[in-house]
Amino acid sequence: MGIKKKWQFHNPDEAAVASIATAVGLSTLAAKILVSRGYDTPEKAEQFLKVDDSVIHDPYLLHDMEGAIARIKCAIEEQQHIVVYGDYDAGATRF
Q1: C-alpha distances out from residue 20 to 2, 9, 11, 74, 78, Å
Q2: Of the four, 19, 66, 68, 80, which is 20 to 30 A from 60 by CA?
Q3: Residue among 74, 47, 67 at smallest CA distance from 34
Q4: Ramachandran assignment for 25, one of left (phi > 0), alpha (psi -120 to 50 degrees), beta (any other)
Q5: Mind giving me the DSSP string for 28-69?
């Protein structure tokens, strides 16, 4: 017997969605996602989307970043293909 899961759909406040879409200049879909995640005012949405550089980690703290950069430059110069792998939350490293 398989596990039965019930999908849960969020129905965000349409007024908040419209307000964010207009004020921030986003599509309705993007605004719905933000409202569903708790960014329900234009101010909250802007604060989330406009990241202050002070909260972004220095990429050179990653091990062997200089080597990675050298390899990428070499691939570009030699017109090689570059494949980038990442996990699903790779963009959430600032949190």
Answers
A1: 40, 20, 15, 43, 45
A2: 80
A3: 47
A4: left
A5: HHHHHHHHHTT--SHHHHHHHHS--GGGSPPGGGSTTHHHHH
- Separation between Cα atoms, residue 39 and residue 74, nearest integer Å: 42
Model pLDDT, residue 92:
54
pTM of the model: 0.54
Q: CA distances (Å), 47 to each of 15, 23, 40, 54, 78, in order?
A: 19, 13, 11, 13, 41
CB 35 within 8 A of CB 17: yes
Question: Under DSSP, is residue 70 helix (H, G, I), strand (E, B) or coil?
Answer: helix
